[in-house]
Amino acid sequence: MRPRAWVLVLAVVFALLQLANVTGRGTPDSKNYLSYALSLRGDGKHEAAVATIDWACEGEASVAARRQSVDVVRFHRADPTAEVLAACREREWGNVGARLAAGQTGGHTVPFMPERFMRIFEARPGYPVFLVPFLTLFGVTWGMWAAGVAVAAAGGALVFLILRALRAPAVVCLTGQALYYVLPCGTTAVRPMTEGLLLALTLTAVWGCALALDGRVRAGTWLVGGALAALFTVKHSQALFLGLALAAAGALIVVRRRRRGRPAGRGVVAVTVAGAAGAAGTLLLAGLLHHPSEAESLQDLLTGHFARPDRERPWPEFWQLQQRFWPEWLRRQLWEPLFLAALAAGAWGASRGPRRAFGVLVAAAASTGVLTQAGHPDIAIWGGRLIVLAWLLPVLGVPLLLEPLVRGRVALPAQERPDRTHSMR
């Protein structure tokens, strides 16, 4: 089998495994994205509310039934599905109905939360647009599942393409794809949230970096620029973080090379310029479109989604929270150090030998996960989904760390084209 066939096999196996959890993956924010997508499809506000609430409550009921079935005290009790479903619908409709009656009917989203909070999601049309064809073809339940599986499978395929652009053996590339699926990247990407699309678009930008360093500067630059533009529509803070990170990493490589008397390289310069232009464009467009600012996001964090009065001195409180968050985060990581060990191994593998420049760029892209987590220092947000982008470093770096072993001892699948000597330092 050709390597491309193995890519498809891994993606299909991953998709089949996801049939174990068709429902119950949603988070509170998933309702906002779903109702937005249904509105774009042409559903009215009430129609979108009915479909969204039914989907969310069916997921809640299925989770409750599964939990009770293995509860050592309550496993023999009657199936709670109907009871949980009815209670959920009553709660959601009481909330939404009151807001609609009060006149909160603007925008594309159903008013599950205060208007100030919903404005954050109104500024993120990219993921709802992505959902529309899946909802139209498969309905709400299977459409949400299929969208998550598709974007997660695409992320794994992009990992394969990135490693192939680095001239890695096919086995190494397939290892990276498999790691993407089994590490938290795959689990998080399947959730009906923006993270799957953020991961895929960030990987697209990293692919562009790899192509630019390999001499295919025009194609690489277009990929980086296109990924940043698409990220703006999904979550403009990620476009800003990624643009700044790539620009800073590229500038660091340029300075280091020139100090050593070497040319900067067209590919590095192109990536640096694309990243800086993306960051500047994000700031400009966000201002012109009146997207919620960092101050508004900070008030959202400190007031529990605007459930309390605005804080008079939010920034000092935010920095105080940062000082307490990171020691606790580190304590938990040292307790179970898989994440830290994976980051170290990924950094080592990505920066070895002639691929050092690529290692700097992929580390910069992965650092956007840390920046996102720093912007939301809440230890309880859905099991680390905010920092999930940092897992891209081990996903891409660990296979490269294993490459010498693979080249020496493992029979490789047929290569699609012969390797050629090339330096990416």
* Low-pLDDT segments: 415-423
N- to C-terminal distance: 33 Å
Proportion in β-strands: under 5%
Count of DSSP E strands?
0
Q: What radius of gyration results from the CA coordinates?
A: 23 Å
Oligomer: single chain
Which structural category do the helix and sheet elements fall into?
mainly alpha
Q: How is the main sheet built?
A: none
Determine the fraction of residues in helical runs and give it as a percent range. Answer: over 70%
Order of helices and strands: HHHHHHHHHHHHHHHHH
What average pLDDT do the residues reach?
90
Shape: globular
Number of DSSP helical runs: 17
Short recap of the structure:
The protein has 17 helices and no strands. The chain is mainly α and 425 residues long.
What does this structure look like?
Helix 9 packs antiparallel against helix 16. The model is unreliable at 415-423 (pLDDT under 50). 43% of the residues are buried. It contains 17 helices and no strands. It has helices at residues 3-17, 28-41, 45-69, 81-101, 115-122, 126-165, 170-182, 184-190, 195-213, 217-234, 236-259, 266-288, 294-302, 314-335, 338-350, 356-375, 392-409.
Features:
425 residues; mainly alpha
SSE inventory with pairings:
Blueprint: H1 3-17, H2 28-41, H3 45-69, H4 81-101, H5 115-122, H6 126-165, H7 170-182, H8 184-190, H9 195-213, H10 217-234, H11 236-259, H12 266-288, H13 294-302, H14 314-335, H15 338-350, H16 356-375, H17 392-409
Helix pairs in contact: 1-6, 1-7, 2-3, 2-6, 3-4, 6-7, 6-8, 6-9, 7-17, 8-9, 9-10, 9-12, 9-16, 10-11, 10-12, 11-12, 11-16, 13-14, 15-17, 16-17
